[in-house]
Amino acid sequence: MNVLSLISTKGGAGKTTVAANLGGVLADSGLRVLLLDLDSQPTLSSYYALRESREAGSYELIAQRLTVPEQVISATVIQHLDLILSNDRAGHISPLLLHAPDGRLRLRNLLPAFQDRYDVLIVDTQGARSIVVEMAILASDCALCPVPPEMLAARELRRGTLGLFEELEPYRYLGIVLPSVKLLLNQVNANRRDTRLIMQSLRASFQSDPHVSVCTTVIPDRVAYPNAASLGLPVHRVEPTPPPGSRSPCAAEVMRALAIELFPQWTAQLLVSGAQVPGQLSATERRLIRRG
Ligand SMILES: Nc1ncnc2c1ncn2[C@@H]1O[C@H](COP(=O)(O)OP(=O)(O)O)[C@@H](O)[C@H]1O
Ligand SMILES: [Mg+2]
Known about the structure:
Layout: E1 2-6, H1 15-28, E2 33-37, E3 50-52, H2 58-64, H3 69-72, E4 74-76, E5 81-84, H4 93-98, H5 106-110, E6 120-124, H6 131-138, E7 142-147, H7 151-167, E8 180-188, H8 193-205, E9 212-214, E10 219-220, H9 224-231, H10 235-238, H11 251-262, H12 267-275, H13 283-291
This protein binds adenosine-5'-diphosphate and magnesium ion.
């Protein structure tokens, strides 16, 4: 099971949007996906309608170490896509972890319970620094950080999000491998000059960083994302092909490219499921399939 967490100390960067849609595109390719909502404002928990809803959620999982699937895992209406709901509205998890001897390692220690049931666990977190976010990072193989291409967001990235990873460095002495950090430009308007300059400077400044890289895939600013959230659908189903006259790639192509970049081991499944919708694959993707 791969563990991917969405991390950004800034609210509104696109964590929940990416968690929901990446989960959706992987699940529609037949992969078994578990979403874990660790944000006390349960936005991811309400993105998809539920087929089977469980009373227990993130509070029982973290505070009581409850991992029984029949009690803690809800099923969404999307096949292969399950969810552990956020139900820690009062914020009890943080003080509890601060006083627990296994504190920041609690989630990491609970993962074996889900190991065989899922191919990927996607953890959504709160847009602020907290022990819960640190716990999510320490449980992850990869931390994906959406960044809007704005100067103030780029500054906050260094001060907030990247500062958080630096403070966890001492865990390496305990033999814990910290996740690779991937920055994902989100809500990009490529026609704007300042956007292009910020993107170039971000790529240049992390070019030789051993721990932080910038994803090749960028997510354009598209109304399909809020529309998909309103409909409770993954965005690749809402915008499967480019709208007439559009020059940037459609949401389905972007989400598939992101999934392939993060999980190259599942390229074949992702391309085959894209090929089932007429006209959905780009010319490059069709070439990849032909090559096998
Ligand atoms: N690429 C995008 N294009 C257009 N709107 C987006 C995009 N990504 C996110 N949004 C919108 O921005 C808002 C904040 O996104 P969200 O995922 O909730 O951020 P976070 O979870 O980091 O707080 C939401 O209304 C969402 O629909
Ligand atoms: Mg969110």
